[in-house]
Write a structure and sequence with these properties.
Elements: E1 9-12, H1 19-29, H2 38-48, E2 52-57, E3 62-72, H3 80-83, E4 94-102, H4 111-125, E5 130-135, H5 140-145, E6 149-153, E7 164-169
Parallel strand pairs: 4-5
Antiparallel strand pairs: 1-2, 2-3, 3-4, 5-7, 6-7
Length: 172
């Protein structure tokens, strides 16, 4: 998808009234053992809406995709970030990315890459230093293309899976 094709999307923070859409997209994008619970996602949106970046399809008014994370000063990903919003520190120098969700009909068009790129810029402007994430083996190459470095096996057993820890430096 060229940058021109990105014109069909509005990129912005999530709105409270979009919580149900975000929950639906999460359930579509992740198997039940990996998906964030509706309760946790609702709490996350309430507490950290400013660290959600959504892509709204201007034609339909619906969310096509979103990327979200929790600000923190911690340097290592841990599973509690998925469920315990009290770990959020709005002034934190890092972001633990908790999900890149792209509706199936919008995949393979560059929207995930665009969201990550815009997210990095947005958070760097706020003075953040690094983004961290965990992903399964089959997603490592994709995130490397986005500029992330594979840090090896993550200290994560989320959903009973083995995860890679990855990070990207965004601030000076």
């Amino acid at each position: 998808m060229s940058t021109n094709n990105m014109d069909r999307f509005e990129f912005r923070c999530i709105r409270p009234e979009e919580t149900q859409q975000a929950i639906e997209i999460e359930q579509i994008c992740f198997p039940p053992n990996e998906a964030c619970s509706p309760k946790s996602l609702t709490e996350r949106i309430k507490a950290t809406a400013e660290t959600f970046l959504v892509a709204e399809d201007k034609e339909t008014g619906k969310l096509a995709a979103f990327l979200n994370g929790v600000p923190t000063d911690e340097e290592a990903f841990r599973d509690e970030f998925f469920t315990d919003i009290s770990l959020s520190n709005p002034e934190g120098k890092n972001i633990m990315l908790l999900g890149l969700d792209v509706r199936p009909e919008y995949r393979m068009q560059g929207l995930g890459r665009e969201l990550v790129s815009r997210y990095c810029q947005k958070e760097a402007q706020k003075g953040r230093k690094k983004l961290f994430l965990t992903c399964l083996d089959e997603k490592v190459k994709m995130y490397e293309k986005f500029g992330f470095i594979d840090l090896g096996q993550a200290n994560s057993t989320w959903g009973g899976e083995a995860w890679h820890a990855m990070s990207i430096e965004i601030g000076r």
